[in-house]
């Protein structure tokens, strides 16, 4: 079964085979350090929220760990991301268990 539309419109000289970018080169997908930085920030803020009973630190930690989880790659260490997330959730829960009053922003006091 052959088409009667004339010559073949495909151009074989324009076909380029896919070559994956090596991991160490700049611009490769694995050099984005945003999830790592946010994971560390989330752990720092959650520890501050737990130790100093600051509700806003717990919420910032939860925000950072959610962004870190959203930007993480499949081959990242899921145990560390999950532990950071659980630590930030526990910081929020513990700060509200110790003081159930609504949170007052730090700039209003």
TrEMBL record:
Pfam families: ASTER (PF03669)
InterPro entries membership: ASTER
Primary subcellular site in the record, as a coarse category: membrane
Alphabetically ordered keywords of this record: Membrane, Transmembrane, Transmembrane helix
Keyword Membrane: yes
GO annotation, cellular component aspect: endoplasmic reticulum membrane
One of the protein's GO biological processes: protein insertion into ER membrane
Protein name: Protein Asterix
Organism: Darwinula stevensoni
